[in-house]
Amino acid sequence: MDSAHLENDLVNVLFTQEQIQERLGEMAQQIAADYEGKDLLMVGVLRGAVMVMADLSRALPRHCEMDWMAISSYGSGTKSSGVVRILKDLDTDITGRHVLIVDEIIDTGLTLSWLVNSLGSRGPASVEIATLLRKPEALSMPVEPKYVGWDIPNEFVVGYGLDYHEKYRNLRDIGTLAPHVYS
Ligand SMILES: O=P(O)(O)OC[C@H]1O[C@H](OP(=O)(O)OP(=O)(O)O)[C@H](O)[C@@H]1O
Ligand SMILES: Nc1nc2[nH]cnc2c(=O)[nH]1
User: Fold this and answer.
1) Is 82 left (phi over 0), alpha (psi -120 to 50) or beta?
2) Is 107 an annotated catalytic residue?
3) Which PANTHER family does the record match to this protein (predicted)?
4) Whose CA is nearest to atom 10 of ligand 2?
5) Is the pLDDT of residue 146 over 60?
6) Which is the catalytic residue, given 107, 151, 163, 173?
């Protein structure tokens, strides 16, 4: 599959790579201001958050540490159920640390509300969330990301870390897939 083919599978580009970098730059400025004088541990949620973590952290004009978690949500079909299992835990002791969870999308909100509770029980100084995208369903969940790139409609999106059957994560833009991909 060449890159031209990859781009052609998008029916609608929601955010271009330029828009994504600009928005992440704005979020980074806000994060830098909010965490001034504090240590900052950014926790990426594998695998989709790899791109956001790479670009958001490099847009930060300050030091930060990074760690990663891999979690799996169980549910029927493609829906998350909120029953979460840790596949890879943090290597860092977060007691007394300022933790910023970095993810690319909050959909139902189940995964991150579980993760905030889980990390919150380890005695951190604070736990906040930065997500590039948020879908409407998450607004009715007890999960309040401090930093949100964009609120988007309830559509399945791919690119910039977001996959469809593990493909399209390496697209630079974010968009919706053409119907022929699903058939
Ligand atoms: O708000 P929710 O409905 O719980 O969904 C959000 C989760 O879904 C995505 O991960 P996914 O399970 O697709 O795994 P991936 O990062 O490995 O692609 C995303 O990174 C969040 O962790
Ligand atoms: N690729 C992808 N993964 C998701 N996980 C939760 N919502 C989405 C979405 O819209 N796209």
Assistant:
1) left
2) yes
3) HYPOXANTHINE PHOSPHORIBOSYLTRANSFERASE (PTHR43340:SF1), HYPOXANTHINE-GUANINE PHOSPHORIBOSYLTRANSFERASE (PTHR43340)
4) 156
5) yes
6) 107
Rounded to the nearest 10 degrees, the angle between the axes of helix 17-34 and helix 50-59 is 60
Alpha-carbon distance of 36 to 140, in angstroms, equals: 31
Task: Output the pTM of the full model.
Answer: 0.94
Nearest CA, atom 2, ligand 2: 162
Average of per-residue pLDDT values in the chain: 92
CATH number at 18-155: 3.40.50.2020
| Dist. CA 137–CA 151, nearest whole Å | 11
Q: Write the pLDDT tens digit of every residue in 12-26.
A: 999 999 999 999 999
pLDDT of residue 6: 78
Q: Supply the ipTM of this predicted assembly.
A: 0.97
Centroid of ligand 2 to alpha carbon of 95 (angstroms) = 31
Ligand 2 pocket member 158 (CB < 6 A): yes
Q: Indicate the domain borders of the chain.
A: 18-155
| Ligand 1: nearest atom to the Cα of 109 | 1
